[in-house]
Amino acid sequence: MDSKDLIILEDLYGAKNYHPLDVVVSKAKGIWVWDVEGNKYLDFLSAYSAVNQGHCHPRIVKALTEQAKEVTLTSRAFRNDQWPMLAKEICDLTGYEQVLPMNSGAEAVETAIKAARKWAAKTKGIPQDQSEIITCANNFHGRTITIIGFSTEPLYRKDFGPFTPGFVNIPFGDTEALEEAISPHTAAFLFEPIQAEAGIIIPPGGYLEKAKEICEKNNVLFMADEIQTGLGRVGKLFACDYENVKPDVMIVGKSLGGGCYAVSAVLSMREVLGLFAPGEHGSTFGGNPLGCAVARESLKVIREENLVTNAAEQGDYFMSKLATLKSRHIKEIRGKGLLIGLELKEEAGGARRFCEALAKEGLLCKETHENVIRFAPPLVIKQKDLNWAFKKIKDVFKALD
Ligand SMILES: *Cc1c(COP(=O)(O)O)cnc(C)c1O
Q: Smallest Cα–Cα separation from 328: which of 255, 401, 379?
């Protein structure tokens, strides 16, 4: 079947909860993907940072296929030989004491919320059903009812209520608002250190450090969602490392599964995760040996291929190239490491038409909201490929100017 037929099938039988570019991918390797007709594209989105190690990384595929021949799923009713190894390795890498494994990012965020409420009830002594979690405007933490309940994006919420109570919203990047929002019932502050889905919004310098200090002073858990920013994307292992703050609770996902398998996790101290008792939380697939084997190799690839350093270096290089881009449509270019947003002016006619034009040139980018184009290639990318991508971007901006 060709691309046209597949698009017709998808739109007829599939729920239309996405608005994809009409590129039907049937093969991928490293930073490149190919469509059904054999056209080649550079992937400049990396599945929202889930394929940071590059598509079908040979070592990760090998870990996946070898583990698939041994044992794939036991459920946590029994133990398996991969989960303890991942648990130790990820704690060693990140400096946390314990980890709770899930699958999707949203599940890990839900887990962190449950952990915070548990801690509030058991340790902080907040009365049952009265704890509050502070979240930020323009957040993106996933798509469950609880999570969209504290979203400020009308599109994510409308028609899906009623929502879970217990959340307080404040502006992002505003430590005074955080201080004011804290009450004796506050369990946690949940935030993204850089708001990626909101359009690569970077808070003012010193924000994380100050917010951490406020949380510490008030005995409030500082909970970072680094599902997209973490594990190297922004040029440090975690975005919080830029301000040397260590969150009490760290949420990871996406590239933890190396683009091969859905693996997410919540990391924290024993004081928090140690409060879960058997039966209080779980997931049939969370911690399964197949996912754990993939995650172990995904972390090894990040470390051994120096992807964090490469993201920092290539990110700086690409930002310097982008700074030379001249177009009346550009409002701002911002980013850290290889998480870069190009914001267009209102009158530019929206980011979508730029992404469509770029796709025709062989560069796959996706708009976030109306006016931001996200540049986020796999972290294995090299300078010569960035030069290639930059030329395409330059051409498209020239053509659409
Ligand atoms: C993608 C993302 C999530 C949700 O992850 P899913 O695997 O799609 O459920 C949560 N938080 C952030 C910051 C994300 O980028």
A: 401
